[in-house]
Design a protein that fits this description.
The chain contains no helices and eight strands. It has one domain (about 5-110). By secondary structure, the chain is mainly beta. A hairpin with a 7-residue loop joins strand 1 and strand 2. The radius of gyration is 15 Å and the shape is elongated. The model has no long low-confidence stretch (mean pLDDT about 85).
C-alpha cells in the first residue's frame, strides 16, 4: 500500500463477501486489516475482473483510494463498480478517488 515501509502493509487479499450482479453494483469484502503506514502514505484497493467489449476480452480494475486517519483507513468494505473516475467521502469524511481502469490491450477474442 502506498510507499509505506511497514512490513504488514504489502499486498493482501481480502475475501469478497457479497457480489451482486447488474450495473452500478457494489461488491463487499472483509474488513481491511492493514496497519497505519509508516510515512502517512495513501493506499489503494483494487479488484481485477474481466469484461468483453466488441468480442474482445479486457482486464478491468475497480479501485478506491485509501487514506489512514491515525485509527483506521476509513474504508466501508465496498468496491463500487462505475465507469471512469469520481470522488467520494470515505467513512472518515476524507475525499478519495474511486473508479474503473481498463488495460489498453485486449487479452484476445471471444466468439
Amino acid at each position: 500500500m502506498g510507499t509505506s515501509t511497514t512490513a504488514h502493509n504489502k499486498a493482501i487479499d481480502y475475501a469478497i463477501t457479497c457480489m451482486p450482479l447488474g450495473p452500478s453494483s457494489s461488491i463487499t469484502h472483509t474488513t481491511i486489516s492493514h496497519t497505519a503506514p509508516s510515512n502517512n502514505s495513501k493506499g489503494v484497493k483494487a479488484l481485477l475482473y474481466f469484461v468483453v467489449r466488441n468480442n474482445q476480452v479486457f482486464i478491468n480494475f475497480a479501485y478506491t483510494q485509501l487514506i489512514h486517519n491515525g485509527s483506521n483507513w476509513g474504508d466501508d468494505n465496498t468496491v463500487l463498480m462505475i465507469d471512469g473516475q469520481q470522488t467520494r467521502l470515505d467513512a472518515n469524511g476524507q475525499e478519495v478517488l474511486y473508479g474503473t481502469a481498463q488495460l489498453v490491450e485486449p487479452l484476445g477474442w471471444i466468439k
